[in-house]
Design goal:
The chain is mainly alpha-helical. Helix content is 61%, strand content 6%. The chain has a two-stranded antiparallel sheet. β1 and β2 form a beta hairpin.
């Protein structure tokens, strides 16, 4: 079921219908099923090259709490970036090259920030020029996004490749 939701979301992104009503139910389904599936799965934990437990641990934990609230937004952002990066005329090699590094888009993640909506909920938004985030906060927010991507998007990289390759074959046919 999750693979179907990801596949359908990819189709929305490829067709440029991310914001259309057709795609919204897919995001609702993803939000409903993702939390239950992650309890059954193992995860990847990233640590930057420099990690000071006294200085960094609390900030890392703070933004890890945001991860369960930004799953759909992160998936749409990352897969949308993949589509934008490979463009409409792409080769099979372009797809493989980009998918290999799908979660390693620090520059993209740095342009987005994690905002606490209320005492517990979070959202991801494009960083505004007036943002008061420190470099330390930017680093750990981006880190939380990369870590989440490793756990919810990278495991489905083959499905993402398949959607792009199917789209490429469909274009060549006609």
């Amino acid at each position: 079921l999750l693979a179907h939701v990801i596949h359908s979301t990819l189709i929305c992104v490829l067709r440029g219908t991310r914001a259309m009503a057709f795609c919204k139910p897919l995001h609702v389904v993803a939000v409903l099923i993702m939390p239950s599936l992650t309890r059954l799965a193992s995860g990847t934990m990233r640590l930057p090259e420099e990690f000071n437990v006294e200085k960094d641990f609390d900030v890392k934990v703070k933004y890890q709490k945001a991860q369960k609230y930004i799953r759909c937004d992160l998936c749409e952002l990352t897969v949308g970036n993949t589509f934008d990066s490979v463009g409409v005329s792409f080769s099979e090699d372009d797809i493989y090259d980009h998918i290999e590094k799908i979660c390693d888009v620090e520059e993209l993640y740095d342009k987005h920030e994690l905002l606490q909506v209320d005492g517990t909920r979070w959202k991801m938004a494009e960083a505004s020029p007036e943002s008061t985030r420190t470099d330390h906060e930017i680093r750990w927010q981006s880190h939380a996004m990369k870590e989440l991507c490793d756990n919810i998007i990278r495991p489905y990289d083959d499905e993402i490749k398949d959607v792009f390759l199917k789209s490429l074959k469909d274009k060549s046919r006609g």
